Amino acid sequence: MTDETPETSRSLTAALTEAATAAGYAPSVHNTQPWRWRVQPDGLELYAVRDRQLAVTDPDGRLLAVSCGTGLHHARVALAAQGWAARVTRLPDPADPDLLARIVVTGPSAPTSDAVELAACLRERHTDRRPVSTEPVPTRSLDAIRKAVADEDLQLHILGANQVYELAAAASRAAEVEAKDPVFQQELQYWTTRTGPAGTGLPAEVLPAHAAETTVPGRDFGREGTLPVGPGHDRAAAYGLLYGDEDEPKNWLRAGEALSAAWLTATRLGVSVVPLSAVVEVVSTRHTLRRLLADLGYPYLALRLGIADPAQPAPPHTPRMPVTQVVDTSAVPTAGTQ
């Protein structure tokens, strides 16, 4: 990017800052938003924020990496929609494991309609933990979501009926294990009350007012929310396992990118997505999921896919941290003037 004019450079700086800001709308476990972006003259750097890692639930940083991966994909989509091509290097510095990715802009590129449509879904995407409608997810929609995952070099396995019951049993077992752990419950309470950092966590407005009737139980947050729950069920939902060939930090980051790609695609198609992370938080149930994959891959997350109940208004979006706390523009001081 050495041949840029000053005007082009300022335009790129604004685009990078906007992409980092858009990445803040990404989903994260318990809405911890465990990321920090540094805007550079020619790209972005993504850092993990260990202070917002779930020390009890996620001691290895598996879900932290998945969460940051969703933000990485969001930033990629935002840049593409603004007409910039970019190259991504994941875990670029072995001496700095908190530097998860570096995005370098390689030049202007005509935005595709897909990128523009996905970018429009960045703010629209949300999590609705209530039962879905009785309308099954169209096969063509499932195929499109699977393709979005495959484009990120991962796979989404849609479970058969018997496997859904096995997933339900694993989810129940994971809930039992976590319910008996007082330290886990304390950490969960921290992120579902207003005691966490401002703009993070899961407020009562996004948590169901009571346990929903579902085949696969959702997470018990240990408290009732205020989100009204209708009389529906999830019998028409599809369940899938997001998986890959290895189980290392780089793969967890890629899993987050694939999750974002799947979720934005689903949002564009009118499909509701709920990630089910409890079954990968407990070692024994994570092994159960691997058996559902015939030991051919490593599960990173289970997903519920469904068509939202049209009689229920969409839940509010979870809060977000102030941009100034998650996007560092000190290396490009003119960014704030754009």
Structure report:
With 338 residues, this protein is an alpha+beta fold. It folds into two domains: 6-125 and 320-337, NADH Oxidase (3-Layer(aba) Sandwich); 139-306, 3-Layer(aba) Sandwich (NADH Oxidase), CATH 3.40.109. It contains ten helices and nine strands. The protein has helices spanning 6-23, 62-81, 113-120, 139-150, 161-179, 182-191, 249-268, 278-281, 283-292, 323-326; strands at residues 35-40, 43-48, 84-90, 99-108, 155-158, 238-244, 272-276, 298-306, 327-328. The strands form two sheets. It has a five-stranded mixed beta sheet. Strands 5-6-8-7 form a four-stranded antiparallel beta sheet, sandwiched between helices. α2 (62-81) packs across α3 and α2 crosses α7 (249-268).
Helix/strand layout:
Layout: H1 6-23, E1 35-40, E2 43-48, H2 62-81, E3 84-90, E4 99-108, H3 113-120, H4 139-150, E5 155-158, H5 161-179, H6 182-191, E6 238-244, H7 249-268, E7 272-276, H8 278-281, H9 283-292, E8 298-306, H10 323-326, E9 327-328
Parallel strand pairs: 1-9
Antiparallel strand pairs: 1-2, 2-4, 3-4, 5-6, 6-8, 7-8
